[in-house]
């Protein structure tokens, strides 16, 4: 097991900046606004030869447990209990505040060892704050600058005392990071079915949707733990939070994302950063679950998100949450399906799962639909099968004449997977209209069971690349 190091402290002392420094990537959103981080976020960190899991947390505030900040504090406290060491971060330039003293007293009572870190001490700044920090009773404060990378050697030395013998990257080489998954496949007549899916690697599953659709509640219900902050307030999630999980023997990396509103309504810088993080998560995911609020139906923004997912070439599943609160369920479901059919024809056949994340009703239907779409998304079609299908399609409905001459499609082959991408070779490819390509794509989906999966089809001029010249 890899050692866990929790980064805690009051809001706006630079915890997320330190987290990004330790993991070597800008994973956590950083802004001058206090309270940016709300959920725990983990990443594979390294200081010299020391490897561990860094845990970014929400700012500690003394609030009622029923309030949002109180629920955020409970998440931070859970991170402390699970950690092997704690980095208690203060602002060296601001000095010690009553809130620092309050939580220092709490940390001294815990069993987890604490390292006191005075941040923002670049260029000799923060000397007075470092002197004041001795009064917290947590040992010698370490002056660092997370933004400029100063003091990291001393931090590594301090950590070695507590976790030096417990190294290893349980999160994998990329930690919280998602891997780019689109795969180019070379045309190779000797090997038409190269292995694309690696069962040892986790399926990367993103949960997206509008604010307050119940995305975090859904993730908590799936993993059976209150891992993510939830509540009635819209927009609770800001960072994309990745969680390692396992379903039916297959590793899954669940990624909860910030709610995405219409672009015209997004004005604040912080929300723009959150939405950008969500869009990046979609781009790097493999399967995306779009969560809808059943009581609100299928909104224009939901269509925009679904369209973006398919344009990025990701497999899509639609989950209608809060289904137990819908009165006329048959009418609501028909309305959603009709809206999909009219406004998003490329999503025809996308699985639609009705459920309640809060009660767990029909939750068991979601992951089978995800696995089905993942399998379709990984489909490899042999060249012989494709060309038999192409022959049937062109005999049934030949390409339109161009200048009184026929346009022949001579050959088809799959050139990419994830999503399935087919190249058509035709000497006069430029004369084949988009409407005929749509006819072929729809036929491909139906014939090879690729319903609801983005399918791409490219036209190429030339002859059959597998026929040798005499």
From TrEMBL:
User: Which keywords label this protein?
Assistant: GTP-binding, Nucleotide-binding, Repeat, Ribosome biogenesis
Which parts of the sequence bind GTP 2? 209-216, 256-260, 321-324
Which SUPFAM superfamilies does this one have?
P-loop containing nucleoside triphosphate hydrolases
Transmembrane ranges, per UniProt, are none
Q: Which residues form the EngA-type G domain?
A: 3-167, 203-378
Q: Does the keyword Protein transport apply?
A: no
Give yes or no: UniProt keyword Repeat.
Answer: yes
Q: Name one GO molecular function term.
A: GTP binding
GO BP terms: ribosome biogenesis
InterPro entries attached to this UniProt entry: G_ENGA (IPR031166), GTP-bd (IPR006073), GTPase_Der (IPR016484), KH_dom-like (IPR032859), KH_dom-like_a/b (IPR015946), P-loop_NTPase (IPR027417), Small_GTP-bd (IPR005225)
Question: Can you say what this protein is called?
Answer: GTPase Der
Q: Which organism is it from?
A: Ferrovibrio terrae
């Amino acid at each position: 097991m890899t050692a866990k190091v929790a980064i805690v402290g009051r809001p706006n002392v630079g915890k997320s900046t330190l987290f990004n420094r330790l993991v070597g990537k800008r994973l956590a959103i950083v802004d001058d606004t206090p309270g940016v981080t709300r959920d725990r976020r983990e990443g594979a960190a390294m200081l010299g030869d020391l490897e561990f899991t860094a845990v970014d947390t929400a700012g500690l505030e003394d609030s009622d447990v029923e309030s949002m900040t109180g629920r955020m504090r409970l998440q931070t406290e859970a991170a402390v209990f699970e950690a092997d060491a704690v980095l208690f971060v203060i602002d060296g330039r601001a000095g010690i505040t009553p809130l620092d003293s309050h939580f220092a007293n709490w940390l001294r009572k815990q069993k987890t060892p604490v390292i006191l870190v005075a941040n923002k001490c670049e260029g000799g700044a923060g000397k007075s704050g470092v002197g004041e920090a001795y009064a917290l009773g947590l040992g010698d404060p370490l002056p660092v600058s997370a933004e400029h990378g100063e003091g990291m050697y001393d931090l590594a030395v301090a950590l070695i005392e507590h976790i030096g013998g417990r190294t290893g990257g349980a999160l994998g080489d990329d930690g919280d990071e998602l891997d780019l998954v689109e795969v180019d496949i070379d045309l190779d007549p000797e090997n038409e079915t190269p292995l694309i899916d690696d069962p040892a690697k986790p399926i990367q599953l993103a949960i997206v949707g509008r604010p307050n659709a119940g995305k975090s509640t859904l993730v908590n219900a799936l993993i059976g733990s209150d891992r993510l902050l939830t509540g009635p307030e819209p927009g609770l999630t800001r960072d994309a939070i990745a969680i390692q999980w396992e379903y039916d023997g297959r590793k899954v990396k669940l990624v909860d994302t910030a709610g995405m509103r219409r672009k015209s309504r997004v004005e604040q810088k912080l929300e723009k950063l959150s939405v950008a993080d969500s869009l990046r998560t979609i781009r790097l995911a493999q399967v995306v679950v779009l969560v809808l609020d059943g009581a609100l139906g299928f909104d224009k923004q939901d269509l925009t998100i679904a369209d973006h997912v398919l344009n990025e070439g990701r497999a899509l599943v639609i989950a209608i949450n809060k289904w137990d609160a819908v009165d006329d369920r048959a009418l609501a479901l028909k309305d959603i399906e009709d809206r999909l059919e009219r406004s998003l024809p490329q999503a025809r056949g996308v699985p639609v799962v009705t459920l309640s994340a809060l009660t767990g009703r029909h939750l068991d239907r979601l992951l089978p639909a995800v696995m089905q779409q993942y399998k379709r998304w990984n489909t490899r079609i042999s060249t012989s099968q494709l060309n038999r299908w192409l022959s049937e399609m062109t005999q049934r409905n030949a390409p339109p004449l161009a200048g009184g001459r026929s346009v022949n499609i001579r050959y088809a082959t799959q050139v990419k997977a994830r999503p399935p991408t087919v190249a058509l070779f035709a000497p006069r490819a430029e004369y084949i209209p988009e409407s005929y390509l749509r006819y072929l794509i729809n036929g491909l989906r139906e014939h090879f069971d690729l319903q609801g999966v983005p399918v791409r089809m490219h036209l190429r001029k030339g002859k059959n690349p597998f026929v040798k010249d005499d």
